[in-house]
Design a protein that fits this description.
By secondary structure, the protein is α+β, with helices and mostly antiparallel strands. It contains four helices and three strands.
Length: about 140
Amino acid sequence: MARRGGKLLLVAAMLLLGVSSAAAEDAQVNTIQDIFRHLLTCWRPPSPAKARPLDITVVVSFNRAGNILGHPRITYESAEASDNDRLQYRIAVMEALQRCTPMPFTEAMAGAAAGRPFAILFRNRKTSPPTQERRA
């Protein structure tokens, strides 16, 4: 019986995590900090089998409706990344942007954020990047 209870607890925890993740993705974006938090809820880095962990930065702007304005630009990738690592992480970043847009701006934030560039760092390493960096 204790084993079954443990399984039920695990299933309940997974459901709770799924609900809280969905709730975070649906929450209204009212501050600049909320923009970063919202985008990170959509971030799914590639598995270690597909690419080595790296850091990547994308610059993106939004319109008042929360849709991406123009084209996002990758401005930084870890220097030691291979071509495959960069490709996998670029795909993951674009998928995160697709999952998170349109950005659910409040009316006040829509006016404040519209047209402004935001540099979003997607971090997937435990240590700080080395002093050498590779610009994309």
